[in-house]
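User: Modeling request: complex.
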Amino acid sequence: AQTVTQSQPEMSVQEAETVTLSCTYDTSESDYYLFWYKQPPSRQMILVIRQEAYKQQNATENRFSVNFQKAAKSFSLKISDSQLGDAAMYFCAYSGNNNDMRFGAGTRLTVKP
Amino acid sequence: EAQVTQNPRYLITVTGKKLTVTCSQNMNHEYMSWYRQDPGLGLRQIYYSMNVEVTDKGDVPEGYKVSRKEKRNFPLILESPSPNQTSLYFCASSPRAGRSYEQYFGPGTRLTVT
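Assistant: Request completed. Predicted assembly structure:
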């Protein structure tokens, strides 16, 4: 079964700085999608960014970008110009052939003013 | 407004007392799913449904039941809740089953079983 690992339970960043959250996954599939979801204190799960495994180009959404290394099975999230509103729990997720979505344990991001 | 709704948002109950958490979506989505979120474990899938009358087990189905009689509703049933089912529960939906689809999440239900 596919597994998703987020090795950083907590991270902190200074406002306006850049932070990178790590995610690795294990799969034998060749076609899949990877996602980053944000969960602010409101508990609402919000999609941040997605990446298709067959696309070489790393996805970008405004201040959020990913570093997708397919061979290394790595999918990190970079947040540039961090803002106070970025403080949240971030979950990495994998979606493959099994009609399910597998999540990592999450990384809690603190943004210091 | 397109959304997934869950009720109740908070629930405290006692061991063995049957309960139902409702989930409804107004986006005409075919795929619906239930997750539980526990500290250090992330979200784990309980059950999912690819369409009406089609449901299947996720990673942690023990102690839970679901039904999908209508496209918009996907209730989660705990026939005899136990303290280890104390958790944060999320319902989610997507247009259809498939790896590319984003899942849209409800606001969560905090369940405490004493």
